Amino acid sequence: MYSVKNQQGYEYDLTLNLQGFTIDDIAQGAFFKKLGMRPFSPPWPAIVGEITAGSAAERAGLQPGDKMIAMDNQPISDWTAWANYVSERPGQDIEAEIERNNQKLILILRPENVNGKGRMGVYAPYFVTERYNLWGSFTQGLEKTWDISVLTLRVMVKMLTLQISHEHISGPISIAQFAGQSAQLGIVVFLSFLGLVSVSLAVINLLPVPLLDGGHLLLYLIEWIKGNPVTENTEFFLQRIGLTLLIGLMGLAIFNDLERLFN
Fold this sequence. Notes:
Blueprint lengths: L1 E4 L5 E4 L8 H5 L3 H5 L14 E2 L4 H5 L6 E5 L2 E2 L3 H9 L6 E7 L2 E7 L2 E3 L2 E3 L2 E2 L10 H27 L11 H13 L2 H19 L7 H14 L5 H31 L1
Antiparallel strand pairs: 1-2, 3-10, 4-5, 4-6, 6-7, 8-9
Main location: membrane
EC number: 3.4.24.-
GO molecular function: metalloendopeptidase activity
């Protein structure tokens, strides 16, 4: 339930039925579309910001600061129009008219085919930065850490109950790719990504699984309740279970990484 205000200034409550929505809808960027809503997006100029190394944009000769004027003689009004035009033409040649240093140029763009959509490897030069004082930064950090921890646990529960796909589990290859992409967007984005990974790994490390720190804490708790430690055979058996679970999780993560890499 949430409150809305109409044009006359009256407030009223609405209740949305979110049954059938999954984490997959959010991860695939289809939440608002499935909800039947389109979030407001200001008309940003189609100006190139950052370019990914080795991308289709770099091969075509695009440079940061280039302004898109037309695609195949069709005028481009804003960044959304440019992105949609490219997305609908994977692997196709596009005649792009751009403006660079007050001069007009013609370039041939060929978007890469990524899951059936065209991608140029270009980022918009528009970011929003919020600044806080020392105490505000501390409280915001605590809130963000708590939110990420809760989200990590929720995702794990939904994976165990088969509510979301195991394909969202990422391993070292995907983490390295995301780290490289975030580094290209600036130090703030890169540090935010490192914080996200660190908090998620900390939560996983505290799970009551043998071989992890959470597993040791569980054994200490059992020892405190019983008054004496568990037997060596029991501890060895639990460690074997924990090792099997960890190897299985790592194998699934690396399999997903390789599948994304080669597909």
